[in-house]
Automatic annotation (TrEMBL):
<feature type="binding site">
    <location>
        <position position="134"/>
    </location>
    <ligand>
        <name>Mn(2+)</name>
    </ligand>
</feature>
<protein>
    <submittedName>
        <fullName>Peptidase M20</fullName>
    </submittedName>
</protein>
<feature type="domain" description="Peptidase M20 dimerisation">
    <location>
        <begin position="182"/>
        <end position="277"/>
    </location>
</feature>
<dbReference type="Pfam" id="PF07687">
    <property type="entry name" value="M20_dimer"/>
</dbReference>
<dbReference type="GO" id="GO:0046872">
    <property type="term" value="F:metal ion binding"/>
</dbReference>
<dbReference type="InterPro" id="IPR017439">
    <property type="entry name" value="Amidohydrolase"/>
</dbReference>
<feature type="binding site">
    <location>
        <position position="355"/>
    </location>
    <ligand>
        <name>Mn(2+)</name>
    </ligand>
</feature>
<dbReference type="InterPro" id="IPR002933">
    <property type="entry name" value="Peptidase_M20"/>
</dbReference>
<dbReference type="InterPro" id="IPR011650">
    <property type="entry name" value="Peptidase_M20_dimer"/>
</dbReference>
<feature type="binding site">
    <location>
        <position position="160"/>
    </location>
    <ligand>
        <name>Mn(2+)</name>
    </ligand>
</feature>
<feature type="binding site">
    <location>
        <position position="101"/>
    </location>
    <ligand>
        <name>Mn(2+)</name>
    </ligand>
</feature>
<dbReference type="GO" id="GO:0016787">
    <property type="term" value="F:hydrolase activity"/>
</dbReference>
<feature type="binding site">
    <location>
        <position position="99"/>
    </location>
    <ligand>
        <name>Mn(2+)</name>
    </ligand>
</feature>
<keyword id="KW-0479">Metal-binding</keyword>
<keyword id="KW-0464">Manganese</keyword>
<dbReference type="Pfam" id="PF01546">
    <property type="entry name" value="Peptidase_M20"/>
</dbReference>
<dbReference type="InterPro" id="IPR036264">
    <property type="entry name" value="Bact_exopeptidase_dim_dom"/>
</dbReference>
Length: 382
């Protein structure tokens, strides 16, 4: 159940190579190949590639009846220029592993090494290396793939490192742990004119100035309540960067966020009605589309209990503090097909925050995450 010193040396070196060659969402082809190659000598019983894009499922099958237990990590990086200064910094301009998915992937690879040495006594262990978590496309694509029906997990587990939490401690609770969210793009169309004769056109200027603060006021409810809603305006653009044109087109982007999926429908409807009313008052047409759609992540009580048992057995301190979080996570999709749970593994109270350009995954989390997941697997599969 433990990794050797040589294992840790090799796993750390591999994690740092992944870190140097990041691939953003839906581009993870080389990262997926690296996973397959790294685990080849563990002699998995089945390897599925191209799941939901570049996803990989590595399966260790006991050949005996029993549950199928899935552990999931993410393959993708972010479109952020790295400023950490570590020797293994990204070699790809404008792209970096600023969320620690390279570390999560390495933890699953460590599980693969151990399953290669000792298969489950019953059932199957599935290591799911998922693409495109950052855009919300990946989990949905994997689950929609017909081959996921062949996997049919009985339980699904995942983890995410979390700066701001004491190193090596875990945060875990049943129920909502991550909010539902989606990006809303509102396009306003009027009529362009010469800047010397703006009265001959229809400008979206007033509509944009009214829409942005009005959208932000749509949210409401305390974060502890199921009716919580939040709208954050993230981008606005109007016309071209020139002085001679009175613009006839504008865009406003906003992120809508709720604790529950059911609340999201109402928030979207309210935002669309608001955009329609303001556009109509200003003589504009409008259209709305949605991007980066994340469902709420709900931890199933039965899955949480398996993780809590493993944490206690491994002597890892845990609590429900800091949960749920406003941030979104597409692992919630897996919970629609089987009991699932995600834990959050502390990266240190002073560690740079996720998505910051100076972040780097703490390598000393690799054995901790591996121990917890391996204990969970052995408890369920023997």
């Amino acid at each position: 159940m433990s990794l050797t010193n040589q294992d840790l040396i090799e796993l750390t070196a591999w994690r740092r190579r992944l870190h140097q060659y990041p691939e953003i969402s839906n581009e993870e082809e080389a990262t997926a190949r690296a996973v397959v190659t790294f685990l080849d000598d563990t002699k998995p019983d089945e390897v599925l590639t191209g799941l939901g894009g570049h996803g990989v499922a590595v399966i260790y099958d006991s050949g005996r009846p029993g549950p199928t237990v899935l552990f999931r990590s993410e393959l993708d990086a972010l479109p952020i220029e790295e400023l950490s200064g570590v020797p293994h910094s990204s070699l790809v301009p404008g792209k970096s592993h600023m969320c620690g998915h390279d570390g999560h992937t390495t933890i699953l690879a460590a599980l693969g090494r151990q399953f290669g040495r000792k298969r489950p006594a019953k059932g199957r262990a599935v290591l799911m290396f998922q693409p495109a978590e950052e855009t919300g496309d990946g989990a949905a694509g994997v689950v929609a793939d017909r081959r996921f029906g062949e996997i049919a997990p009985d339980f699904s587990f995942s983890l995410h490192n979390l700066p701001g939490i004491p190193f090596g401690e875990v945060r875990l609770k049943a129920g909502v742990v991550n909010c539902a969210s989606r990006g809303m793009r509102i396009v306003l169309e009027g009529k362009t004119a010469h800047s010397s004769m703006p009265e001959t056109g229809t400008s979206p200027m007033l509509a944009v100035s009214q829409l942005m603060p009005a959208l932000a006021k749509l949210g409401g409810g305390a974060f502890t309540d199921d009716d919580f809603g939040m709208v954050t305006v993230t981008h606005a653009a109007m016309g071209e960067a020139v002085f001679g044109v009175a613009p006839g087109r504008a865009e406003v982007w906003a992120t809508l966020r709720t604790r529950l999926d059911e609340r999201m429908a109402g928030l979207c409807a309210a935002a669309e009605a608001l955009a329609g009313r303001i556009a109509g008052e200003q003589g504009l047409t409008f259209k709305v589309d949605y991007h980066e759609i994340f469902v709420a992540s709900m931890n199933a009580p039965s899955a949480v209990e398996h993780l809590r048992t493993a944490l206690d057995q491994e002597g890892v301190k845990h609590s429900e503090e800091s949960l749920p979080m406003r941030a979104s996570e597409d692992f919630g999709i897996f919970g629609r097909s089987a009991p699932s749970a995600m834990l959050f593994l502390g990266a240190g109270e002073r560690h740079p925050a996720l998505h910051n350009p100076d972040y780097d995954f703490p390598d000393d989390l690799i054995p901790i995450g591996t121990r917890v997941f391996m204990r969970t697997a052995r408890n369920l599969l023997g």
